[in-house]
Amino acid sequence: MLDPRSEIYPSIEYRPIQPSDLEVLEKIHLALFPIRYEREFFLNVVNGHGIISWGAVDTSRSDEGRDELIGFVTTRMIAAKDSEIEDLFRYNNSHKDLTLLYILTLGVVDSYRNLGIASSLVREVIKHAASVSNCRGVYLHVISYNQPAINFYKKMLFKLARRLPMFYYIRGQHYDSYLFVYYVNGGRTPCSPLGFLKMLVAKFWSKEEKSIPRWSRCKESSTLLASQNNNKRIISGEDTRSHV
Q1: 236: exposed, middle or buried (C-beta count within 10 Å: 0-12, 13-18, 19+)?
Q2: What is the DSSP string of the chain?
Q3: What is the rounded distance in angstroms from the CA atom of residue 159 to the CA atom of residue 153?
């Protein structure tokens, strides 16, 4: 790992996460997050099964670890209609085919913090989202008390779309979530009076539709699972913060 006392600036490169990263990826998640992700999650990441990911490596290292992960971001492409911000896009006649790129986890090992790696990883995500013609944005949830993460995404020009009351349930206590969005390919919140009216009408009609699967964490394992019940996130008692 990088020696914090070193004056040599590392040479960081970014690449897709691959099967050989499995063990290191698990170790970093365990070190950074108080959440126990199941093996299936990591297998899906390294094999690209429904998850799009990027890893950061320090190619300036002279040892065998020059291709070892020192940062990562994992994402999933979902239909806009399956997100909490569906109503922001329903005024568009082609909304049925719109997608969003959702950030699942983002992290950098401690010794490589404050080098712009997390920002570069998020830029990779944004670049990929912009390359998908029907993708309209990158979005994620931040627990309300995670001020460093809130500041980070604001600095990255993400827009605060809404606050979701009691979205998280941690150690018997409810916490709100902030939902941040970075719009791409013309995706944006309707700001004209007509656009706003259409959004309200769409939101009213959406109440008549059946419930939509939301991403939530399983109470038993704290892993990301599709839930048919609600859009809350229940986190086990050992969990103290959001992954972003």
Answers
A1: middle
A2: ---TT--SPP-EEEE---GGGHHHHHHHHHHH-SS---HHHHHHHHHTSS-EEEEEEETT--SGGGGSEEEEEEEEEEEGGGSTTGGGTTTSTTGGG-EEEEEEEEEE-GGGTTSSHHHHHHHHHHHHHHHSTTEEEEEEEEETT-HHHHHHHHHTT-EEEEEEEEEEEETTEEEEEEEEEEE-TT-----SHHHHHHHHHHHHHHTTSPP--EEEE-TTT--EEEESS-S-EEE-TT--S---
A3: 8
Find the largest Cα–Cα distance for the chain: 60
**CA 151, 156, 161, 165 torsion-angle sign:** negative
* 143, β-bridge pairs: 177
| Bridge partners of residue 216, in order along the sequence | 225
**Tokens describing residue 208:** 């008549």
pTM: 0.76
Lookup: tokens for 102? 């959702």
d(CA 244, CA 242): 5
pLDDT tens-digit map of 124-142: 999 999 999 999 999 999 9
Residues of the chain with pLDDT > 90: what percent?
57
184 token code pair: 């791409």
> How far from 68 is each of 56, 103, 115, 214, 237, CA to CA, in Å?
8, 22, 17, 33, 32
